[in-house]
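Private note to self, pasted from the team thread so I don't lose it. Backbone tokens:
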């Protein structure tokens, strides 16, 4: 029986965080970039114009990617709790 270190748990947690947050961050970045380009092209400098589409896109992407993100984080939690005896010993 191999013993796992806290470092292994930390690495697994970091990968789960990166994988779970990446779709939302990419959607927000793309919508922000498109909105910024449109604002520059039309010379409209309204702050709410950049915020509202990004907020709506994040909400929609949370609805789409939410179950997948929950599976990633839930798998990490299950892995941590089932291997708890390996971290102690």
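Design output:
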């Amino acid at each position: 029986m191999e013993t796992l270190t806290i470092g292994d748990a930390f690495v697994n947690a970091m990968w789960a965080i990166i994988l779970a947050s990446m779709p939302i961050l990419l959607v927000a970045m793309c919508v922000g970039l498109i909105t910024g380009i449109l604002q520059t092209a039309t010379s409209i400098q309204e702050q709410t114009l950049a915020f509202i589409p990004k907020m709506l896109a994040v909400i929609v992407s949370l609805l789409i990617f939410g179950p997948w993100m929950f599976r990633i984080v839930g798998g990490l939690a299950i892995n941590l709790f089932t291997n708890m005896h390996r971290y102690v010993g």
